[in-house]
Amino acid sequence: DLEASLLAGYKKMLNKRKPFPRADMLQHLTLEGQSFTGIKLPITALPCNEIEKGIAIGNNGLAASATTKKNLTQSVREALTRDEPMVVISRIEEEDHPAFDKTGGTAYGCFAAPDIPAFTTLGVYGGVVLRAEEAAMRKEESKDSDRYLYDLSLYREAGKGGGGLFCLDGFNLRSEMGMVNDYRNFPPEQEKTPNARAEECLLWSVPSVVLVAVRKINKGEEILSDYGPQYWATKHFEK
């Protein structure tokens, strides 16, 4: 079983490197008969400087300089230790909203709980690390699963995983960040732009994705990111 092999190899790597300063930082979850290990949030047992030592930010995206990388590291640390979420999840009721389910199902969106300053890390994207082959299989099983997949290029570039491509799959083990909708396809009078973007990082060697506000987001405003044009091209092709 590919996924079981991946998880076993990944756990072996973590056990060998022992990246976590405390065992109580981890939580163990079971889903559909499979066991998963992840970081338990919020982190309360470590001082701020120790937490920041465990955060590695890539050189792409918002972290274009040493200063912005340091600021983003601090922002991620704040998200890891935050008691109250920055967002609330609400049902999408407006029929002209692109995420509205016209088949009678339920659709949700992610909205700012307080006013959120620019460059605030909104939260960690929950999910399972998969090989690209396994992610492709899941796409075949569910047409909606690609909405929750992020390629982990930072993990590959760091020389881990045998140089192969890995993905973060938030389809089943998603967090609030998995409820963020795309900014496209709103009515012309409601045209939107992304107010958040995904940033890759390593958290104690665990490949991760966080969502960061790219501008001030007002209380009650929907959090919107960019799924990329390929997502919508696929959806139109399926229709």
Automatic annotation (TrEMBL):
Residues 85-228 form the SET domain. Pfam families: SET. This is SET domain-containing protein. The lineage of its organism: Eukaryota, Sar, Alveolata, Colpodellida, Vitrellaceae.
